[in-house]
Amino acid sequence: xxxxxxxxxxxxxxxxxxxxxxxxxxxxxxxxxxxxxxxxxxxxxxxxxxxxxxxxxxxxxxxxxxxxxxxxxxxxxxxxxxxxxxxxxxxxxxxxxxxxxxxxxxxxxxxxxxxxxxxxxxxxxxxxxxxxxxxxxxxxxxxxxxxxxxxxxxxxxxxxxxxxxxxxxxxxxxxxxxxxxxxxxxxxxxxxxxxxxxx
Length: 199
Hints:
There is one protein chain. By secondary structure, the chain is mostly helical. It has a single domain (20-186), classed as Growth Hormone, Chain: A (Up-down Bundle), CATH 1.20.1250. Helix content is 86%, strand content 0%. The chain has helices spanning 2-5, 9-39, 44-69, 74-91, 99-112, 117-162, 166-198. The chain starts with a helix and ends with a helix.
């Protein structure tokens, strides 16, 4: 099953975008948001509160994403989710770390935090079937965890080396933009495949 899946671009594109998902969510925000706030004179308790608010909105965003994934184009949803995540991550270092900007950022980013999961699961099942899809999603999720681990370690190394998290958050945002382009390519491949099957 895995050997067959690795011959298909769909598997690698889904793995690459989910790698970026892990990198740009649990990897950098989950591990380094509070220290980044502390570097910008935001207390640890206050920063933790923003993270808690993010968690509340994540609950809403994930359920909402599942509802949307059952009703709308999953490619377009992923484009929007990764695009909005990119803007959020690039904006954060320039937000000024004021109360209202961080509050709005936490709510906005929270809605998007795990929103990429339902459409990714749907596309995996679409391409590989309802029997093989869940197993292959496990491998795709492994890419997510690899991205998370790499972001957690590299952002820490960056902070120790150049004494700021700014480049790490900006790079995570730019990689999220890359995920948007990968999804666009994925959609074009799917469209071409459907046209060729129809012919």
